Amino acid sequence: MPNIFDFNLVFTQIPILLKYLPVTLEITVLSMIFGLVFGLILAIVKIKRLPFFTQAVNVFISFTRGTPILVQLYLTYYGIPIFLRYYNFYNGTDYNLNNIPPLLFVLVTFSLNEAAYNSESIRAAIQAIEKGQIEAAYSLGMTFVQVLRRIIIPEAFVVALPTLGNALISLLKGTSLAFVCSVVEMTAQGKILAGANYRYFEVYVSLAIIYWILTIIIEQSIKLIEKKVMIPE
């Protein structure tokens, strides 16, 4: 009987795939950080209802949430070089398009995508804060930055944490699409291994196990953080 499924191969492939875990984590962590910062800015713009900026933010969020991340990766991968060509042509510069690291395309795409989704979660969390606390802080002479740092961000973080935790898990799994921008992370390496040994099922089972364990680790970490920052009733 032919060896239809090689159980041992599943576990022998895992160490090879884990060599590319740092790339996956780098994309995940950096994209989440930039996504949180930019998402906070977008949320504040929407809450303040700044003329023109609010409309621009609404269009950006609608487009980002309404298009697949795979399409956005392609748009970034082909769009940034086109933009630089036009910039070189009209400004007399000579930026070398070949020196653009593929990781940049991935980070830009995932950061903007996370910002669009995080902005709505952050906005809802900020609006859930009692206005009396914010007004009291202003009455004490605090500036907007001080109110943001001491009251808004800490309290909004507690409210938005479960949603942001889910976003982090989705981002981790979404990094498996980074290979379309020529970035070799775990999934890309899995495709390479599967193409070499033709044991596609075993390789993808190995990947599934790794992503599953990483997701469990993130879930448990989020629960621990929730317990630490939980406001007693």
Write the layout of secondary structure elements.
Elements: H1 7-18, H2 21-48, H3 53-65, H4 69-91, H5 102-127, H6 131-139, H7 144-174, H8 186-197, H9 200-229
Helix pairs in contact: 1-8, 1-9, 2-3, 2-5, 3-5, 4-5, 5-7, 6-7, 7-9, 8-9
Verbal overview:
This protein is mainly alpha-helical and 233 residues long. It has a domain at 21-183: MetI-like (MetI-like fold). 79% of the residues lie in helices and 0% in strands. The protein is built from 9 helices and no strands. It has helices at residues 7-18, 21-48, 53-65, 69-91, 102-127, 131-139, 144-174, 186-197, 200-229. Helix 4 (69-91) packs across helix 5. The longest helix has 31 residues, at 144-174. It is flat and about 75 Å long.
The CATH homologous superfamily of the domain at 21-183 is called: MetI-like
Q: How many distinct helices?
A: 9
Low-confidence stretches: none
Largest sheet: none
Report the principal-axis shape: flat
> How does CATH name the architecture of the domain at 21-183?
Orthogonal Bundle
| Radius of gyration computed on alpha carbons | 22 Å
Helix/strand order, N-terminal first: HHHHHHHHH
The secondary structure category is mainly alpha
Would you tell me which CATH topology of the domain at 21-183 applies? MetI-like fold
SS elements, strand count: 0
- Integer average pLDDT: 89
The first-to-last residue Cα distance is: 64 Å
Residue share in helix:
over 70%
Strand content: under 5%
CATH class of the domain at 21-183: Mainly Alpha
Quick structural overview:
The chain is mainly α. 79% of the residues lie in helices and 0% in strands. The protein is flat.
